[in-house]
Specification:
By secondary structure, the protein is mainly α. Helices cover 80% and strands 0% of the residues. Helix 1 packs across helix 4, helix 2 packs antiparallel against helix 4 and helix 2 packs antiparallel against helix 6.
């Protein structure tokens, strides 16, 4: 996303920079609220529900909008994006791996409680 943002920043001007945080806030809040509302509508499931590929795609995009904005900023500052993008990629990989390991450790908890926590985290990230 920072590389995509860097290319966008080369072609777009202040318009994107002024509203990117609002786009992230709105999308993350909608997804977070949807997760929390679904939590209160159902009982604790006995089996786990897999996310669809579409849901995972939109979660990936919405949680990466900040990285897109960073790429745009680097383009406006006329900085090279290669090293920062590599650092962002490595950091994202490591934190995602930690989250997957943590998720497997707590999967025995009631899934809808985890969904509430996840929805809350998305809203906080968006804020």
């Amino acid at each position: 996303m920072p590389i995509i943002g860097w290319f966008l920043g080369k072609f777009l001007n202040q318009f994107i920079q002024e509203i990117d945080h609002w786009i992230a806030f709105i999308l993350l809040t909608i997804i977070g609220l949807k997760m929390i509302i679904e939590d209160f509508k159902k009982e604790c499931p006995t089996d786990t529900k897999e996310f669809s590929l579409t849901t995972l795609f939109f979660l990936a995009i919405t949680t990466s909008i900040d990285a897109l904005a960073i790429g745009i900023t680097f383009a406006f500052l006329k900085n090279n994006i290669a090293l920062p993008a590599l650092i962002i990629a490595i950091t994202t990989f490591i934190t995602s791996l930690i989250a997957i390991i943590f998720g497997h450790k707590v999967k025995s908890l009631c899934q809808n409680k985890i969904q509430t926590i996840g929805g809350t985290v998305l809203i906080i990230i968006g804020g």
